[in-house]
Amino acid sequence: MQAQTSGLQVSVHGHPNADTLLLWHPATQSDPDAVAALASRIATRSGIRVVLPTWSAGSDLLRSVRYARESAVHPPDQLSVVGYGAAGIAALSLARHQRRLGIGLRRVTCVDGAADLDDPISGRPLEAPGAVPAAVETAVDIVASDDPGWAQQTVESWRTLGWTATLVPADQFTWRIA
C-alpha cells in the first residue's frame, strides 16, 4: 500500500494489525524497488507490518515516526526502528531522546553505522547515550559493520549506562538488499 503524509511518500508492507517496524533505508531514493522488496520480505517472513518512508532529510525521518505511530493499531510505544548507515545513527539518537520527544520505542537497530556518520536529524555526530530512564525498556541492536571497533565500543557504552544492547554479527543479519 502506498500512502502520503505531510508530503512524505510511505509504503506499507504486511498485515495492518501486526506490530510495526519503521524501516529507514538510504536506498529508497536510488533503488526504491529493491528496498520495497526488502520491506516486503521482512514483513512476510517476520509477520510484522513494515512502514517504509522515502526520505531525503532528517525531518522526513521524524515525520515517518509520527506516521508509523499514528497508523499503528498496537500501542504506539511498541514501535521498532531499523536504520541503515546514517539512518542507523538517527535510530540510536531517537532511542536516546525518546522521552524528550514524548515517544517510546520497543527496539532500535543500527545497521552499517560508523564513527564518521552524523545523525541526519540533528546534523551532528551521535551523542553518548544517557543513562536509561526507569520508564525506558528499549532494546538496542548494533549490527557489526565495516567498522567493528566502533560497533563493539558503541554496544559497550550503551550497556554501561543500563541499556539492553546487543552486538549482532554481520553474517547473522539477513535484512539486506539482495
UniProtKB/TrEMBL annotation:
SUPFAM superfamilies: alpha/beta-Hydrolases. It comes from the Bacteria. This is Alpha/beta hydrolase. It comes from Nocardioides albidus. The lineage of its organism: Bacteria, Bacillati, Actinomycetota, Actinomycetes, Propionibacteriales.
